[in-house]
Specification:
By secondary structure, this protein is an alpha+beta fold. The protein contains seven helices and eleven strands. A six-stranded antiparallel sheet has the order 1-2-11-10-7-8. It comes from Gandjariella thermophila.
């Protein structure tokens, strides 16, 4: 497997950026693996629960374990990440989103907690994931939501059973896939997310702008973004195969 962020065999490009912000340390993590021989790839963003070394270690351990196992099954990859945390007693807990794809124009996503995945294509931004938070739980039942509920997750890597893991199977045509921690999506309005993803010339520009803008607008959390571009050339080649 490779972590090269230029993949001519699949016509994918990706990049990631992460910034500590006003926190004591950065407890977010990203990870990526590609298997050109098998035509598969996997990306992950994890967000440690807390602002301490154990949280940071949990995010790094979970992200690495997930992408190492995710080239076939993102739900299973999160369970592998759970096992990795169980085997590392000095780590804390984290939330996680994993995206897996291949030579076709589909992408499988799994998540726990409030890391998110967005798909931008043809001028439209779509939120693929649904937050596993107390606020989302109350909102779905038309109950009053207190501000603090937005930051209380109802699933995490250490605690989620397989049936609690969120999953989605989405098209990934020529366009952009964004994975991010809540330090990005809870600070930037949807319109700003869409504008940045639409205007950035490449994944590197997109992730840098997302993270910098989140903190410039007053974000108080770590901010992490990973963007994957699939080019029209790949789509055309796939259709002709």
């Amino acid at each position: 497997m490779s972590t090269d962020n230029t993949l001519p065999i699949e016509h994918l490009r990706w990049d990631a950026a992460s910034a500590r912000g006003p926190r004591e340390l950065n407890a977010d993590a990203t990870a990526a693996v590609t298997d050109p021989g098998a035509g598969r790839w996997a990306f992950a963003v994890a967000d440690g629960v807390g602002d301490n070394p154990a949280a940071a270690a949990a995010a790094r351990t979970a992200a690495d374990a997930a992408v190492g196992a995710a080239t076939s099954d993102p739900r299973g990859a999160i369970m592998v990440a759970r096992e990795a945390l169980a085997d590392a007693p000095d780590t804390g807990d984290c939330v996680l989103v994993v995206a897996v794809g291949g030579a076709g124009d589909r992408c499988e996503i799994a998540w726990v907690g409030d890391c998110r995945a967005y798909l931008w294509a043809e001028g439209t931004l779509r939120q693929v994931t649904e937050d596993h938070t107390l606020a989302a739980y109350f909102r779905a039942r038309n109950l009053p939501v207190a501000p603090g509920m937005e930051h209380v997750v109802t699933t995490s890597v250490r605690t989620a059973a397989a049936e609690l893991i969120g999953t989605a199977d989405v098209p990934l045509p020529a366009g952009r896939l964004l994975l991010c921690s809540d330090g990005v999506h809870k600070t930037l309005p949807t319109a700003r997310l869409r504008t940045i993803l639409e205007r950035a010339a490449d994944p590197g520009g997109a992730v840098t702008d997302l993270v910098d803008t989140a903190h410039r607008l007053g974000g108080q959390d770590n901010a992490t973004a990973l963007v994957v571009d699939r080019t029209a050339e790949h789509t055309a080649n796939s259709s002709a195969a």
